[in-house]
Structures
1.
Amino acid sequence: MSDIGRTALVTGASRGIGLAIANLFRGTGKIRVLAPDRKELDLSSNTSVDRYLSQLAWPMDILVNNAGINPLAGSTEITDFDIESTLQVNLISPMRLIRGIVPSMIKRNYGRIVNISSIWGTVSKIRRVVYSTSKSGLNGMTRAMAVELAKYNIMINAVAPGFVNTELTRQNNTKEELKAIAGTIPIGRLAEPHEIAELVAFLTSEKNTYITGQTIFADGGYTCL
């Protein structure tokens, strides 16, 4: 482990975009990756988040808040549970993780944070009330924290993917629906998880010395229409 240069915490790294990010970090041979499962870090529980933070063995150089949930419900359908659980997992827990990890970044005058947002935090569609709200909040948090943390050489950004070819996307859409979705994207296809991971890898690297407070869309041009 003596050759490990940085330590990264990636939430929601068991599949999809999170797994691609964790694997890309591991592939460098220079980043120690912490990718806790839900038993280790349950983002629906403040107690679990605080316990996990208290047990960290290393200071974090990189934090990627990737985990999220997306209950589909319209304005009149939404339950208290949908509201509370989505805001907890998508917004409150990322904020608590940042709050817990940032002090050591400030002390060492270095940190890179990426919040995985969504195009639905800026544009939206039906039955995305709580999800869009949570991701809009994540974007706002990113901007506010960037202003505060820039003087400590801590860069914090959000990445907003559009339609990505993940297991969940394939579960929620038929082949015909996926083909129709691809037809609405100027680039003509869904993103692959590794393409999102490459963007995150740059933003969390030492090469990123000036980009902070941004929500960067990775959607093949979808939101340009």
2.
Amino acid sequence: MLAFGQFISPAARRNSLRLDIGCVATYAGVCIEKGMGSIISGLTPDTLGEIYEYCPTITELRVAAGIFAVGFLLFTLMLKVAVPISPDEFLDKKEATVHAPEVDVPCPV
């Protein structure tokens, strides 16, 4: 519920610290809801409540590493698009309050 409230509030969406808290709360909520059974499938108890010992093979570890690598790659590519977008890019030029200082830089010819 904390994460939901953080993302609904417009004031919280403008504050990066509160957004970070909302993201951590979302992750924590999913871990609490699903438990370790969704993270490590070998810890899921059977219908009698017994938990069996399980050791993943090298192929399973490679597949998991590949999935994480693709996720990190997509995250990096999305950051390259999202970070350059400034908040006042979508405002009218008259309404923008923050302007970058003009600097005269000689062009090498």
3.
Amino acid sequence: MSRPTLSEPLDNCSHCPRLVELRHTLQLEHPSWFNAPVPAFGDPKAALLIVGLAPGLNGANRTGRPFTGDWAGDLLYGTLDKLGLSSGTYDQHLDDGLQLKGCLITNAVRCLPPQNKPVGAEINNCRPFLKEQISEMTTLKVIFALGKIAHDSVVRTIGAKLKDHSFGHGAVHHFEEGPVLVDSYHCSRYNTNTRRLTPEMFEDAMGLAKKLAGLY
């Protein structure tokens, strides 16, 4: 997998001590894993940016590609395929030949957090990378936020106020400047097992983001 020509944290990024400690532990326990800040995947000239929460332990932190190798990725990439936003076959590893069409995937936090729960300082530390990524995507029209943490980080990145833009599945947010924001519940196994999010709900929300981005 080649990294998009966008700003990314260094592999040895040291901004968040707690995440660095976990990374070093996993580098010893699983030396064949990626174990580094996970770069964005997809088309850097995309009209649609998908923002998740953070790499999963056995997903992106292991494979080095967002949402690759876990349940959330199965739903995300399956939906992208159904909506015609990818080509090739997703097979949970970097060499599967999958390519995205008109979209790019990243995370609000680029490193694996313990229990998949980043703290506020870690989200804040990673926000400059998201801000620079958004600013460099000159063809960007829509951001699709997976979950409230991603939503909040995008709103703050754009410089808007959270009180004016409440998270809600399928909600659409317009700003004075910048791309449109569309919300979705995160495509996690927990959300799908509890039926908070169904595949149909997820496809509808992503389809709305696709339509607003002008991807037909």
4.
Amino acid sequence: MAISDLAGSSLAASSLVGSSPKFQAVLDEINMVAPVDSAVLVRGETGTGKEVVAQAIHDASPRRRNPFVAVNCAAIPATLIESELFGHERGAFTGALTPRMGRFQLADRGTLFLDEIGDLPLELQPKLLRALQEQRFERLGGNQTVQVNVRVIAATNQDLWGMVQERRFRADLYYRLNVFPITLPPLRERTADIPLLAAHFVRKFGQRLGKPVHHIPDEVMEALTSHDWPGNIRELQNFIERAVIMTTGTVLRPRLAELTPQPAATTGRTLADAERAHIVETLRETNGVVGGKRGAAARLGLPRTSLIARMQRLGLMSHSERPVDHGRTNVALPENAMGAFASAAGAGGF
């Protein structure tokens, strides 16, 4: 298949490529929220392109001529992240020999992208919340207020609502960040986009590496679309880069053995699948009772609220179906939720 034959929808000046309905829905949400200053929470598995989406929102916004500043909350030690975000004054800590601006101030009039927001230390979350609400803060070791005008986009691959239920993330900060949520589908749910993405990466790395690769064989494309890509777009990108490096002519020649499926016993079974199956089985044993000494939560060694949060995250129970406690410890699930458990398990969905 010639690379030039593959042309799909993409947002201008970004690496968002695809034409599937789920991709188009994401593009629609980006175009909807980009012109306004509301906070955005981008959710999705690792490798689905959360930073690319954040950059696309910035590039399509009135702030596009101003800075886009990204910070990975999981990559900075907890002892340094306050200084990274808000800056510090001279003498604020050992080694602070000069004043330093933080990422908030560097992003003034632009966009601040907070990646892996679920890893932000709990003790720092109130200061971040104040900065978001009031657009002002004090540097570490200082008492002078710094005023900024920053749009914040956050991203996570974690279940923030579940973390709120387990008191590992502040509810007020969650609601402040989750004004406009965008959920990115995993690559296995948008396989129609794989040919377009593959062609995009072949062009990209061909130009970068000086390789005139113009054709992807049909058997290669079939192997690409058949693979489930647990690492999502990042994994596909890395695979294509290796393939371009190894190609000596104009036809892409990857090592397809790298895409060989694992034995059937493990294929397609993720940690979430295993967790879902275990919860379903436990709920069957307790006749759908969540709380109490003999309920599913006790058997699983979890607080009742934590189990409910996990059930919602795993799609076993919608937020509207969440039981109302009224102080009771023994909570029965609605019949429609139990029916969903039984039908999904019986169909091999878990």
